[in-house]
Amino acid sequence: MHRLVFIFFLFSGFSSLVFEVIWARMLQQVFGTTSFAISTLLTAFMAGLAIGSLLGGRLARQVKSPLRIYGILEASIGLYALLVPLLLAYLPTLYAPLFERFMGDFYLFSLLRFVAVFVILVLPTTLMGATLPLVSQWLADRQRIFHGSIGLLYGANTLGACLGTFLAGFVLLPAFGLHTTNLIFVGVNLALGAAVLLSYRRLERSIAHEENPELQAELSEDDMALIQGGTALARPIPTWALRLTLTLFGLTGLVAMSYQVLWTRAYVITLGSSTYSFTLVLTAILIAIALGSVLVSPLLKRVQRPIYLLALLQALVAASATVGFYVLDRIPAFLYDRARDTISGVGEIYAYQFGLVALVVFLPSLFQGMSFPVVVRAVNARIEETGEEVGAAYAFNTAGSIVGSFAAGFVIMPWLGMQRAIATMILVNLTVAALLCAIELSQRFEPRRALTMLLALLTGASLFYIAPPIDRARLSAGMFRVHLAREVYSPKSFESSTPEILYYEDGLTATTSVEKRGGGVALKANGKPEASDGADMDTQILVGLLPFVARSAFADVALGQEEAAMVGFGSGVTAGASLQWPLKRLEVVEIEATMIEASRFFEHVNHRPLEDPRHVLIESDGRNYLEYSPRTYDVIVSEPSNPWIAGVSSLFTVEYFERVRQKLNPGGVYGQWVQLYELHPDNVRRVFATFLAAFPHVHAFSSKAKSTDLILLGSDRPLAFPPEGFERAWSIDTVRTELQRVGIKDVMDLYGLAFMNQAELEAFAAGSELNTDDNGLLEFNAPHDLIFYSVGELFFARHYFSGEIYGDLRPYLQNWPTDWSPNQIARLARGAWRAGKADLARDILHETGLRNARGRDPLLDELIGVLDADHLPIAPAAEATFAASDDPYQEAAQRAGSPQGAKQVIQELYEQQRAPRQGYDGRRGLLHAYALTVSGDARGAQRQLDHLHNIPDVTHTPLYPLLAGQVYQARRRYREAYRALSLATLATDLPTPHPPTAHDLPAPVNALPEPHTSPAD
């Protein structure tokens, strides 16, 4: 029957950890997700546990049946958990004036926040902390065998906590949401309390050793010594030694919690910043602690020198943690190898990731888990004092954990960096082991034991000193994004492609790095690229300007007096783009200070926004700041774009979007950057549906043709997009220059970037569930899409390449088309074509009767020519180019007109390239580009064309501009394709053998990243 007590205590740990997860998430919705806010929650929670363990230990000596009190406490925890959501509902009313009044005084504000959290959590956490000493005392009093029972009890509770961590993160919260899960475990705790109260008398009768002679006969001499109130230790431990041992045990709590913080940060970099990474690390640690406690417990009755054993365990913690140094930066390589194999499901990847976590954390946590029962064995000499001594040991360790959770995140890692911080903890472990050994040897020197401990310490120290430094570039390679391993890196390139690290800093909330690869610079947060000076520039600039441009379409809006807010600073490019608008004030809220430092590596592209007097930097949680700041804004921009990232996901909920809408002035516009290339279509629908639920008027724009980076615009007023409104924006010199920086040569080009209009968004998102603070649908579902990246590609394949017109803004244009001139219509259609929407461009001209209306406007004539040329066969132009009877490539050009013949010609040209030759033959290169185009290799054709753009005898042919136009079109570089085809049109119309040169075609783009596959996306 005594096994039932262990089952009770397992469920106790299970429910306690689930409540901790639930309440922390609820409180973060009020206080934000800054490191200080999270640390405040954790500190308040553990402080309650420490207080409870001390009070529970004292109470255990004074009550007749500690088990009965335990049952009452469990039921009380359940009842209080029922009230927590109600208490939190009133917390914002209290928090708002505190935020407004004391936000400028960081320390006072942090103290007030701690007090608010502590007041709410002190009662249930104190009750939770009291349970272990109460049940320990009950077992000691009734069972009388407590050498192993305390360790088994602690192990059962920790195993329950492990189950709670895993099931809460992977099953309960994704399935039921916060409030329903809270209600479920209110029921669990009430049922647990009732079960204990109904069974405690029967349990007491069944295991009363005083009335069980048969069991008495089975007791060992050590156990009998304990029953008689003596000690089974080799010799009594002096009081000073016990106190010092408890103090050092508290220090091991600090180290253990520091390891947890540091390992979590390391694995967030290697496994990604999703909620599942945090869950996997904590689950692995708790499993090891529970197993360690269970494994050591049966051995304790034979341990006569527990302090010596504790010293040995700490030395083993240090040695095994050092081994982790050899593994951490190899995790991305393991992920890379696994990602290139067949993956049957997300569970398979998470299981593999769990194994990678266990490689580093399991052994140190196992030895740490053995320490608590050993300490109890050392300090617990008398049965009647079991509860108090267990409570004291637990309190000391928890106090150390409180200090460790704060110090590791806010002092040790920011000051020393992750690697040196882990090294410091290893040295602390070795120091604790040495001090414990000194305590043991001070009572009686034994050479054999001293030598054993010395060897253990030397082994740990030597492993520490020979450990190689962590490869920061490899650690932050981002292999948790499976498609990088599958589609970007070959095995050879993964091993050889090491970027130059320009900046690397472990900040309070993230590890920020700046990498230089080739000629480009990329900014990473926890291994995930957040910005770059290359492929991301279009989105970074447009998300900062498009909301202002859209707002300028409102005729009653005065330009130049806007007050704006921006969530996220990143590289500073978006803030710099917004400041090109003549706004009055821009508040930028950035949660991670190291991002600000890293932005200096982007000063060549970001306009140095920190030096602009209109720029106001606020280091805080963006959502929390917008929730409680009294200011309102004309424009709000949100840069964090990945809803799968824990913390960022809270910026994609209905509650957040609704709060943003409330913070906008009438006619205000909100711009949200969304990266959709790693999202399942169902999650894309959730993003759109959630946004639509908060904003009555919504449109989605892409940052460039066929881009997977979107900008959602939301407003309380219809977004009508009149041309005169856009022209107002275009007339601002700094705005026009900034838009031209990303290839917007005409403000009408912005119309072509429309991804979905309001009706299309509503139709696509119809019937989708909304993402809320309670259900966290995106936070729990979106991380799975990192594994099956292709599902996101399928969405864009259906959307962009279905042959249907999309993103059509004509129904929303004012006075369309009656008040639009032929030039404006041509510019609108040209913008559509240059955004990859040739069908929309044709439809616009057909609707307005201008498809064949040559002679009415020069631009219209050019556009009609391009529309005629974009689907012309290139074979006639090739035959004309190589038509001369003495041309050595005439016959090959004729054969290259078919795919099979083109492949033969390509092979022949490759063989010719191996032969010795004089100089470079441009005409052969042109033939090669033609054959590659016919064979479907647009990328290879582009490489050849890039070598030809400075050879007049080639660029003056009819084939080159036509070929370049179609190749650029296939490569989704529509602006360049339009330019080339306009030249091709002239070339086919002119009788001269020397049509206009193509020298001014765009610079070679071969070095630019592929769409969707760049590590810097």
Describe the 3D structure:
The chain is an alpha/beta fold and 1017 residues long. It has 5 domains: 1-219, Up-down Bundle (Growth Hormone, Chain: A), CATH 1.20.1250; 238-498, Growth Hormone, Chain: A (Up-down Bundle), CATH 1.20.1250; 536-811, 3-Layer(aba) Sandwich (Rossmann fold), CATH 3.40.50; 822-869, no CATH class; 875-989, no CATH class. Helix content is 64%, strand content 7%. The strands form 2 sheets. An 8-stranded mixed β-sheet has the order 7-6-5-8-9-11-10-12, sandwiched between helices. A 4-stranded antiparallel β-sheet has the order 1-2-3-4. Helix 1 (2-31) packs across helix 5. The relative contact order is 0.07.
CATH class descriptor of the largest domain: Alpha Beta
Q: How many individual helices?
A: 41
Name the helicity range: 55-70%
Strand order in the largest sheet: 7-6-5-8-9-11-10-12
Number of strands: 12
Low-confidence stretches: 214-231, 988-1017
Q: What's the average pLDDT?
A: 84
CATH superfamily of the largest domain: Vaccinia Virus protein VP39
Shape: elongated
Radius of gyration: 34 Å
Oligomer: single chain
Main sheet attributes: strand count, strand direction, barrel closure: 8 strands, mixed
CATH architecture of the largest domain: 3-Layer(aba) Sandwich
Query: Which class best fits the helix and strand makeup?
Result: alpha/beta
* Overall number of structural domains: 5
Strand proportion:
5-15%
CATH fold group of the largest domain: Rossmann fold
Please report the distance between the alpha carbons of the first and last residues. 59 Å
